[in-house]
Specification:
Elements: E1 9-14, E2 26-31, H1 35-40, E3 43-50, E4 60-63, E5 75-78, E6 83-86, E7 90-96, H2 99-111
Antiparallel strand pairs: 1-2, 1-7, 2-3, 3-5, 3-6, 4-5
Length: 118
Amino acid sequence: MFRVVDIGEIYICDFGQNNGSVQSGVRPCVIVDNKNACAFSPCIHCVPLTTQIKRGLPLHYELSQKDCACLEADSIALCEQYTIVDKTRLKEKIGRVAQIDLIKIVELCKKNLPYHYR
């Protein structure tokens, strides 16, 4: 049986070592997968978070620490780096994003697809 996670939850995730600008290391991420994948798949789609704030980038979404108390600092959801990780890389659930934030993050992830949905 696979670990059951839920869309909108924030986990500490070990992204491993990557080259260049691809997010790596241990950092928070937001789960953005559908209910079936969250329940039954060994892998999950997620969006990595960073505290390196760069405003004005079209596929970044800012999460305020005051609105999302589980975060240690204001953070950016890197929606252009929406990725798949094995659930074994999810170390600890630390919280959940607000529904409005989740909707906006998912919309930005969709815009990253070559034929984004409306």
